[in-house]
Amino acid sequence: MSKTTKTLFSNIEDELLVEEVSKNSVLYDSSHENHKDINVKDVIWNNISSVVGQCTEDCKKRWRNIRDTYMRNKKKLGTGSSALSKKKWALADNLTFLNNVEYERR
């Protein structure tokens, strides 16, 4: 039997997760001095998971999914009138803090 089960996050949990991550730039800003310090990030993720009410690993996975979706949508969104006609993603406004961060491609 497979141990991989998909944990669903409610809209409120998604918003809480984004809000908590936004308070901790070490998690999303690769130029932060502690960005590569796993111990610091683990403590932060444990705190976030207790606020959100989901396990740490699920919070990390959900955050990666939310972040990647935002970045993909941001790339797709062009300029001009056709860009305005598409329905805006519900979490887009909550993620604008990511606009000020440079991302390195692996």
Automatic annotation (TrEMBL):
One of its GO terms (cellular component) is transcription regulator complex. PANTHER family: COREPRESSOR OF PANGOLIN, ISOFORM A-RELATED, MADF DOMAIN TRANSCRIPTION FACTOR. GO terms for biological process: regulation of transcription by RNA polymerase II. It comes from Macrosiphum euphorbiae. Residues 16-103 form the MADF domain. Gene3D superfamilies: Homeodomain-like (1.10.10.60). This is MADF domain-containing protein. It holds the Pfam family MADF_DNA_bdg. Transmembrane segments: none annotated.
